[in-house]
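Worked example

This section walks through a single chain of length 313. The input is the sequence exactly as stored; nothing has been trimmed or padded.
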Amino acid sequence: MPNYSTRLNTRIRVLKTPALVGIDPRWDLLPAAIRAVAESKSANRCARDAWGFEAFSKQLIDIVAPLVPAIKPQVAFFEQLGVPGFQALHSVMNYARRAGLIVIADAKRGDIGSTAEAYADAWLAGEDPNAAAWPADALTINPYLGTDSLQPFVDLAHNRGAGLYVLVRTSNPGAAEFQDRLSDGQPLFEVVASTVQRLSETTRAADHVFGCVGAVVGATWPIQLQKLRRDMPAVPLLIPGYGAQGGTSSDTAGAFNSDGLGAVINSSRGINFAWQRKPYSDQFGETHWQEAIAAATRDMIADLAKNTPAGQI
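Given that input, the structure is written out below as tokens.
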């Protein structure tokens, strides 16, 4: 069974980009045409919103599937809608898998013992989308409870050809409040990074560069990102913070090996709602929101190719 990193890197090589599109649907930002149809489907807010989220997400997938290797649905936006939201999320994830996309569920799960095993079993489908209740290739997880909370996820991910992305250095401004605290003379995020490197190394085949245990490191911390790339050579990286959060393509350059592999760079709002910002609002407007998303995705791909080692893929 090919491991997660091998499957992901195959897609990256085929499409020649590490661009990752997050799916973050928000009712007030959806195109008016989708909201109008959704309102005709149900008077119940959760059911209405879920219909709109699903319709929007599937059209988004149709646009980006030929362009990027992976998508990252943000589970929270669907979960807030209860059962209809979860039904929509499941449908969207399956739709993306059928389109050939790698699906990274951004759920940030984490717990100990049998509870961690249950979360892992629920979310980590890996190579076979039917192997779990949720058809995710990979899952984001929280390490705060310690190594014993990570191990059940690591074991199952390794067995199913799935991937993990452990929160190491997150992109939000408040990350330093806890992550920079010293532990045995090291910032806590570096301690976590050492554990992630060790765990990924245990899942790495002798002829592979990367294991299945990845790390989330924000583009908003470019100096730390460069160091973490060196400190975690066996770890694939997921880089949030590009675009709407202020991170640039140059800020992400340190995430890559010289061959352009080793990371995926996420953009969510900047792609999802591209028609609401310049220059796409002037070029396309809401009437042609699909073309705006396609243009923004291509622009991101070109930006990464120009300013990072991704241009070597």
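What to look for: The longest helix spans residues 45-64.
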